[in-house]
Specification:
Trna Endonuclease, Chain: A, domain 1; 3 domains; five-stranded mixed beta sheet; two-stranded antiparallel ribbon
Length: 276
């Protein structure tokens, strides 16, 4: 059976790959097997991976919202766009969870020119700049030109002290973080140049997906009990993470949810953040 990937490439349907992605949602093996069998009866020659994903998501949601929410994680990260502003705030939350101090949306003067900085971090007196490369398309990749360009900005900024955090400080480290992936050349160049990379699947095992699961850093955009417009309203209120809702249910009332819907959202949020 041939299926069509997001990129347009035609490949063989791999039920084992689908099974593994469903198991990663936290769903029981028997539930996963039932979903897999149901999908096998519905797929056809030339079906898109997007349609298969929709089937799997709908079937998971019938079993448990929080399993579907976790299965929806990569799409949820993509929904932190379209400009990537909320993705930058999300990445700052990620560093916060690892006990870094963070600052966002800054403009700093380098030796030669000024630079807009997505996130600055500080830990153990070491300050790092973080460049966030957000992609709307699932198959887009950050190629070698990205670390080459960011290295030049980093070098320019290293030449000066900056009035950041609690005084005059120098930036000594650089991160490049993307919601998708890096090409092999980008990884090779970054390693050679001393740049730190983080993507959906790099580095192994401490990649973006692993960090999210280990620290329950699920974005509100993955919740199945909220509409897209309601998720956008929460982001505007600076509610970025699901676990921020658990102790801040007032934000759900602010965006117009009924008492009953607030209960449903909080149940999904609580289940998602404690299921492991």
């Amino acid at each position: 059976m041939k299926i069509v990937k997001h990129s347009g490439a035609i490949v063989d349907f791999n039920p084992e790959k689908l099974k593994n992605s469903l198991l990663k949602s936290g769903a029981d093996k028997n539930v996963v097997e039932d979903i897999l069998q149901a999908i096998k009866t519905q797929i056809y020659e030339g079906i898109s991976t997007k349609q298969i994903y929709k089937m799997a998501f709908a079937l998971l949601k019938k079993k448990a919202n929080f399993h579907a929410a976790r299965y929806n994680l990569r799409e949820a990260i993509r929904l932190l766009g379209p400009a990537g502003f909320f993705f930058e705030k999300y990445i700052a939350r990620l560093f916060d969870s690892e006990h870094y101090e963070t600052m966002t949306n800054l403009t700093l003067q380098g030796k030669c020119v000024t630079h807009e900085i997505d996130v600055l971090t500080r830990k153990n007196n070491q300050i790092a700049m973080v460049e966030c490369k957000y992609h709307v398309g699932r198959d887009a990749a950050s190629d070698v030109k990205v670390p080459m360009y960011i290295l030049s900005r980093f070098n320019d900024l290293q030449e000066r002290q900056h009035a950041i955090f609690d005084g005059k400080n120098k930036i000594s480290k650089c991160w490049i973080i993307t919601n998708n992936r890096f090409t092999a050349d980008a990884v090779t160049f970054a390693k050679c140049s001393g740049l730190n990379l983080l993507s959906w699947d790099y580095p192994s095992p401490n990649n973006l997906k692993t960090k999210i699961d280990n620290s329950y850093l699920y974005p509100v955009t993955c919740l199945t009990t909220l509409s897209l417009s309601e998720k956008d309203k929460l982001l505007i209120l600076d509610v970025i993470l699901v676990k921020e809702l658990i102790n801040n249910s007032d934000s759900l009332i602010k965006i117009g949810l009924s008492t009953n819907r607030v209960k449903n959202v909080l149940k999904e949020a609580s289940d998602l953040c404690r299921y492991i």
